[in-house]
Amino acid sequence: MSEKGEELYNKIKDKLVELQSENSAYAQFNEIWKMACAIKYKSYDLRYLYEDTSREFVDEYREHLIKMKKDFVENIDEYVDKCIKRMESTNHFRVYLAKTNQEAQRIFMEELGDNKVIYKSKSLEAKDAGIMDTLKKNNITIKETDLGDVFCQLLEYDYPSFTLGPGIQFTPEEIVAKIKEKYGVEVEPEAEAIVNYFRNTYRKELLKDVKVSLTSANAISAQDGSIVLVENEGNISIITRATEKHIVVAGIQRIVPSVFDALLCAKIQERIINVDGAYISFISSPSNTSDVQGHRVFGMYGAKEVVIILVDDWRMKAVKENLFYKDMLKCIGCKSCDLVCTASRAFGNIYASKYGIGAINIVRDYIHNGIEAAVADGLFLCTGCENCTNWCPTGVDLAEMIRELKRIAVDKDLCPPPLKEYKEKILKDKNPFK
Ligand code: SF4
Ligand code: SF4
Fold first, then answer.
1. Hey, which residues does 353 pair with through a beta bridge?
2. 40 pLDDT exceeds 80?
3. Quick one: DSSP state of residue 357?
4. What ligand has the least distance to the C-alpha of 360?
5. pLDDT tens digits, residue range 236-251?
6. Average pLDDT, whole number, for the chain?
7. Has residue 221 got a pLDDT over 60?
8. CB-ligand 1 contact for 332 (6 Å cutoff)
C-alpha cells in the first residue's frame, strides 16, 4: 500500500473512532440520520396521506423516467440547444451555457455586479461549480434561507450534511443557545418557538432586502424552458419573487424533454423525501405586466430579471467519451440512494464528501478532485449491497460507479490493508479466508 493510501486509510479510521464517542459531531449526526432513514422506510407506507405508498408512486412512473433520462443522455446536444432557444426567445430569460466551472464562476460574478449580499437556497450545483468558493473569496455575504442551512450557518457547522435536511442534527437547546449568544434573544428550546422566531424576524428581512437571489432548479423543461423548483418552507417562493434578480445555476442534466417530465421529476423528489412538500413553482418568465395599454413591462411585483447559468463542465464530455460516470446525468437528485444506503446508515456523514453525504457525492468529488479525494470520503466503506441502484427511480447504476472507483483506487495502490491481504491470499492460495 502506498504512503498516500496509508494516510487516507488512517484518516477514515480516526473518523470511525470519533463516531464511537458519544458527543462527537459524527455520532450526533449519525443518531438522527438513522432515525431519518427509518422514517423514510415507514413513509413508503403512508397510506393515510395518499392512496398509494411512495414506492408504488415511484414504480408507476419508473419505466417512463428511465426511458426519458436515457433519451435525454442520447440526445443531450439537441435538448440543451432547444431549451436555451426556448428560454431566450419565449421566456425572456438571460441564458448562459458555461463550458467550464471557471466560466460559470466568471459569469456569476459579472451578473452579481456591485452587489455584496446574496440570498440563496439549496444550490448544490453552484457549490459543484465552485461558485460558493468564489463568492467567499470575493467577500460576498452569503445568506442561507432554508432553515436547516440557516442553522448550519449560525452554528458554523462545516461537516457534510444531508442536503435536504442540513440542520437535523442540532438539538433545540443548541439552537436557542446560539440565538441568545448571537442576537441576545431568549427563545424557548422548542421547534415551534424556534420557527416562530425566524418567521417573525428573518422573513421580514427577506421580503424587504433581497436584491439578488440564487437557486438551482429541480428540473428544466426543454419543451417550454420553464424552471421547476420544489420546496416546503416558502423561502424559495419569497427569494425568487421579492428579488430584483433571480440567478439560477443548474447543470445541463437538469433539463428534461417536456413540461410533464419536469413536473414528474418534481413530484418524485417531493414524494420520496418530503411527504408534505408545500410548493412547486414553474418559473417561465420574469415578473411582468401588460396592464398599461398592453405595453409589456418587466418587473412588477416579482423578479425583474431571471438569469440562467447552465453548466456543462464534465457533462457533455462524459457522454461523448462514454465515461463510466455518465450515468450521473440521469440523476434527478431525489436522494433515495442516500436513505437506503448501508454505508450511509452505518457511518452517517463519514461516508460523504464536501458536496454532501452518500455515494452520489463521492462520485461528484471524484469527478472534480480525483481518486484520492474519493478514497478520503470513505469509498471503501461501501458494502456493495446495491440498494442504491435498486431503489433509484431513474436507473442510475450508482453501485457500479462506486465499484469502478474502487477498481481505480486499487490500481493506484490506495486500497485499505485488509482488502490488500484478501487480494494477496486470493493470488497465493486461491482462497481469501486461508
Ligand atoms: S442516483 Fe440517487 S439521487 Fe440520483 S436519481 Fe438515483 S436515487 Fe435519486
Ligand atoms: S452499494 Fe455501496 S453505495 Fe450503494 S447502497 Fe450499498 S453501500 Fe451504499
1. 356
2. no
3. E
4. 1
5. 999 999 999 999 999 9
6. 92
7. yes
8. yes
Residue type, 131: I
Pairing between β-strand 227-231 and β-strand 219-221 as defined by DSSP bridges:
antiparallel
- Which ligand 2 atom minimizes the distance to the CA of 343? 7
Burial class (CB in 10 A: 0-12, 13-18, 19+), 93: buried
pTM to 2 decimals? 0.92
Beta strands in 312-407, from DSSP E residues, in sequence order: 352-353, 356-357
C-alpha cell at 65: 423516467
Is the pLDDT assigned to residue 258 strictly greater than 70?
yes
pLDDT of residue 165: 77
How far is the C-alpha of 167 from the C-alpha of 183, rounded, in Å? 19
Instruction: Provide the pairing of β-strand 212-215 with 117-120.
Output: parallel
Query: Over 70: is that where the pLDDT of 392 sits?
Result: yes
Atom of ligand 1 nearest to the CA of 358: 2
Residue 324 DSSP code = G
SS3 of 177, please? helix
Mean pLDDT of 265-278: 77
Stronger pLDDT, 193 or 10, i.e. the higher one: 193
Cβ–ligand 1 contact at 333 (below 6 Å): yes
- Per residue in 295-339, pLDDT tens? 999 999 999 999 999 999 999 999 999 999 999 999 999 888 988
Looking from the CA of residue 344, the nearest atom of ligand 2 is 8
The atom of ligand 1 lying closest to the CA of 333 is 3
Inform me whether the pLDDT recorded for 38 exceeds 90.
Answer: no
From 40, 331, 337, 342, mutation site for ligand 2 pocket: most ligand atoms within 8 A of C-beta:
342
| Closest ligand, as measured to the CA of 406 | 2
Distance 351 CA to ligand 2 centre (A): 10
Ordered by where they begin, the domains of the chain are: 3-43+335-429 (no CATH), 54-145+211-316 (3.40.50.10420)
From the CA of 340, how far away is ligand 2's center (Å)? 8
For 50-55, which contacts have Cβ atoms below 8 Å and span 24 or more sequence positions?
Answer: 50/271, 54/271, 54/272, 54/275
Q: Is the CB of 376 under 6 A from ligand 1?
A: no
Q: Which ligand neighbours the alpha carbon of 336 most closely? A: 1
Nearest atom (ligand 1) to Cα of 330: 5
| pLDDT tens-digit readout, 56-112 | 888 899 999 999 999 999 999 999 999 999 999 999 999 999 999 999 999 999 999
User: How far, in Å, is the centroid of ligand 1 from the Cα of 71?
Assistant: 17
Alpha helices by DSSP H, 90-186: 101-112, 124-128, 131-137, 147-154, 172-183
Question: Pocket around ligand 2: residues whose beta carbon is below 6 Å from it?
Answer: 341-344, 359, 382-388, 398-399, 402
